[in-house]
Design brief:
Shape: elongated
CATH class of the largest domain: Alpha Beta
Strand content: 25-35%
Number of strands: 19
Order of helices and strands: EEEEHEHHEHEHEEHEEEEEEEEEE
Distance between the termini: 14 Å
Largest sheet: 10 strands, antiparallel
Radius of gyration: 21 Å
CATH architecture of the largest domain: 3-Layer(aba) Sandwich
Number of domains: 2
Helix content: 10-25%
Length: 361
């Protein structure tokens, strides 16, 4: 997504539109890291959170109400796979340290237009098992107050309201938890646990298989689309019948059938339609939704022309069948291995589906 970057050798390598891993990749160190007040420099003051259009799981929280607490701010948007893989840690920290002075606040700042709708965020929050306070930042006011640029992004403020640590992108989990422990101790909390959370993520929350991941995040709408391989020109904002080339190169994709390609998404206009993608990854996810609320669209997924079997994702069965309903990220493929170049094919039965973005893991 546009505000996700790839961390290479400890430095940000410009705007790279990948589901960008950090070099840490969430791997836990075997030797505990100790932090001191001198190491945790002051990065600024915690901005007010008054720009939220609504709050979920809490009344609006103010700086005065947060004074004396260690505050972890987690910027997220609910379709972001990079953020989904960090969520188990944030959720676990919120539970582990809630009685010791830590307040976790999720700030939901949207990328896609449907993520601006409060009802969508409100629906997805309990589905994602989020019970800590969420500020719904659909107008980007909190995002801009922090001068933030990333999903996911974590900022941690001490009991005096000073930001002392940040983490952009996936990874850095041990360091972040050690900072929480340090700042709680500084705040006078007694018996702060010195161990680290132990997790067993499921579904989309499982960390990416970085060793085999060779496919980048790929947008479908024309504003950011790359590697589109259907022959002929893109007909922007008007229907056109598309076809797939005889052979796709790795990480190229194509539409088949009558589609309208819009800035954010491609919308199926014909009675049936397909998207094909040659990929190299364990997981295939697709952000999509039904354009008519309450009218699901059926689909079937294949790999190399065959049903996925035990390589099916959590949103399809072994034969590859599933339904598109609300706009969200759908996990379509999770391969048990071996990982190789394969052709992914999703066929929709019925018009009205909108496809936004492929992500991989």
């Amino acid at each position: 997504m546009i505000a996700r970057q790839l961390l290479v050798a400890g430095t940000w390598a410009g705007m790279v539109f990948l589901s960008g891993p950090s070099t840490a990749r969430g791997e836990r160190e075997t030797v505990p890291v100790k932090y001191t007040s001198a190491q945790l420099r002051i990065e600024g003051e915690l901005p007010a959170l008054g720009g939220a259009i609504e709050w979920i799981n809490s009344p609006p929280l103010t700086p005065s109400a947060l004074r004396g607490k260690v505050v972890l701010i987690d910027f997220w948007t609910y379709t972001c796979i990079n953020w989904r893989r960090t969520l188990p840690y944030v959720r676990a920290w919120a539970e582990k340290y809630k009685d010791r002075g830590l307040v976790v606040i999720g700030v939901h700042t949207p990328e896609f237009s449907f993520e601006k709708a409060f009802e969508n965020v409100r629906r997805e929050t309990p589905v994602l098992d989020i019970h800590y306070p969420v500020a719904v930042d659909s107008d980007y006011l909190i995002w801009r107050a922090f001068r933030n640029q990333y999903w996911p992004a974590i900022y941690i403020a001490d009991a005096h309201g000073r930001i002392r640590h940040h983490q952009f992108g996936e990874g850095g989990y041990e360091e972040t938890e050690r900072v929480i422990q340090q700042l709680l101790t500084e705040a006078g909390q007694l018996d702060v646990p010195g161990d680290l959370v132990s997790l067993d993520p499921k579904g989309a929350e499982v960390g990416a298989d970085w060793a085999t991941l060779k496919s980048p995040e790929t947008y479908v709408g024309y504003e950011k689309a790359e590697s589109f391989a259907s022959p002929g020109d893109v007909a922007r904002d008007r229907p056109r019948v598309y076809a797939s080339p005889e052979r796709l190169r790795l990480n190229n994709w194509a539409l088949v059938g009558e589609w309208t390609i819009k800035p954010e998404a491609a919308a199926l206009k014909g009675a049936t339609g397909r998207i094909v993608y040659r990929f190299h990854a364990r997981d295939v996810n697709l952000i999509m939704g039904a354009s008519l609320r309450g009218t699901p669209v059926g689909f079937r997924v294949r790999i190399d022309g065959k049903p996925p079997g035990d390589a099916h994702g959590s949103d399809v069965d072994e034969q590859g069948y599933g339904l598109v309903t609300e706009p969200r990220m759908y996990q379509l493929i999770r391969q048990p291995g071996p990982i190789a170049d394969r052709v992914f094919d999703i066929e929709f039965v019925g018009p009205g589906v909108e496809a936004f973005d492929f992500t991989f893991g």
